[in-house]
Design goal:
Length: about 160
Amino acid sequence: MPVRSAGLLIHRRFETELEVLLVHPGGPFWAKKDDGAWSIPKGLIDPGEDELSAAIRETREELGIEISGDFAPLGEYRQPGGKVVVVWSVEADPVLDVENVTSSEFQMEWPPRSGSIQSFPEVDRAGWFPIAEAGTKILRGQFAVLADLVKQLDQTK
């Protein structure tokens, strides 16, 4: 059975434009990558944990912000590495500020084979992106979530 993660595609209407919130992964591997490197806030589902609860928890850990609202199932998306990400959409307060995210951290040996363990934030920044720009920023394996969000919102008009 593939590894499963859960995440939230947080969106808002800013003026008349649809925007989505994406996060940029922290750590040295991602430091100089931009286009094709951003993601929705997401993470692994703990054993016995409800998938939506995991998505909310992971978002809180990555952003330091509690997200609430009407969560709508968006779909399940198989990533290039085989992991499946279960995604919900939720509309955020239009003024939700993500300039100063407070992310949990992870540790890794850095530089490689140095024996030195360093801490890095899971997410080093977050931002609001118009849907078209988000299409260039988001990881290839998550691109479909953007199209599915647009379809979902069109159906609820």
